[in-house]
Write a structure and sequence with these properties.
homodimer, alpha+beta, about 120 residues, 4 strands, about 35% helix
């Protein structure tokens, strides 16, 4: 239905606990909206904040669908490049220091495992 | 990287303003996690809350990628069916009362237009 859907993790956590909200994700969200809106792409590309997606020490984390491309440690100043290359030119940005996909997948899985354990402890599973 | 990524809008708004958070999205989020975790799919399917994605009077709204399938007015009791059919069997559920995709796309676009105008008013664009 949409060309792309960009999710920017905006989770905040207590002080001293790493989180995307604590590492400038609000500015990253604004930067994505600014780039998308100024490019006139608001009818084709949705920009949404998200809750925690793991990798909390690598914020701000961004995931772009339908490609399922995960960007970590995203700074506002590189949003223009991501929108230009990934969204407009259709080429996800690869020359970054993101973890290899197996490492990244493992970290996100571990995050889900922790939620599963918390739900079990709470008697919700 | 992941088979699916399920986003459940968890936005809350002031009293009397329709929102997914005000129509039971926390229970829908829990229901998705419960189904995914009990099915042992936590390494393949990510479940995440999201900020507002528009269509606030049709909460709880759910979007599942990479298909980009939008579900509206989702209730906890139908989550099992969505996970079984869409996630496990790979067949997005179509026999629901969701708006046609052009109506839905228009509503989400209008929501983004409103954010764009608010950012312009605030001098951010």
């Amino acid at each position: 239905m949409f060309k792309n859907h960009i999710f920017i993790c905006s989770e905040t956590k207590p002080p001293m606990v790493p989180s995307c909200g604590g590492t400038g994700s609000a500015e990253v969200l604004d930067a994505f909206r600014k780039e998308i809106f100024n490019s006139g792409l608001e009818k084709e590309v949705v920009v949404t904040s998200s809750g925690c997606i793991g990798m909390c020490s690598r914020g701000a984390n961004v995931v772009i669908y339908p490609e399922g491309k995960w960007y970590t440690v995203v700074k506002p100043e590189e949003v223009q490049k991501i929108v230009k290359e990934h969204i407009i030119d259709g080429k996800p940005v690869e020359d970054r220091n993101d973890p290899p996909s197996d490492v990244l997948k493992n970290e996100v899985s571990m995050f889900q495992e922790r939620i599963k354990m918390m739900m079990q402890d709470a008697g919700k599973l």
